[in-house]
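tokens incoming
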């Protein structure tokens, strides 16, 4: 990081800050709801907030460097995931309609047509890898029995 005058200053934290700002808005809105609706909205908010908290950027500082970042990475993900991590970027997609959302946070998830990569959607549509593999296994069994 170069300093506050640089437009790229703290770029790695912008996605995280965006997610937490939207969460603060959602919490405030949830607290205004009637009982029943409020509990449901707060449950949704807290699930997203806990996931975001587990994927914030953990920062270490060089000794004697007045706390300026020397290394930072997602608190949960392996260092190879970079910053912001995949999970934080995916959480940001919840508010893709917001004017402060940056599509670049998720461009690696999308193909040239601007839709999520088919493999990701296949996992979602199958409700997880296990169900996807089970479906493939059952299809293979059906094909084998048809051939015999």
């Amino acid at each position: 990081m170069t300093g506050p005058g640089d437009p790229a200053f703290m770029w790695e934290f912008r996605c995280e800050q965006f997610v937490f700002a939207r969460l603060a808005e959602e919490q405030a809105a949830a607290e205004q709801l009637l009982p029943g609706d409020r509990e449901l909205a707060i449950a949704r908010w807290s699930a997203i907030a806990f996931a975001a908290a587990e994927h914030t950027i953990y920062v270490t500082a060089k000794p004697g460097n007045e706390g300026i970042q020397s290394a930072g990475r997602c608190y949960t993900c392996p260092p190879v995931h970079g910053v912001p991590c995949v999970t934080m970027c995916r959480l940001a997609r919840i508010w893709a309609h917001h004017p402060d959302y940056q599509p670049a946070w998720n461009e690696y998830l999308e193909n040239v047509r601007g839709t999520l990569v088919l493999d990701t959607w296949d996992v979602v549509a199958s409700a997880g890898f296990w169900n996807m593999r089970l479906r493939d296994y059952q299809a293979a069994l059906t094909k084998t029995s048809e051939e015999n």
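note: Strands lie at 57-61, 69-74.
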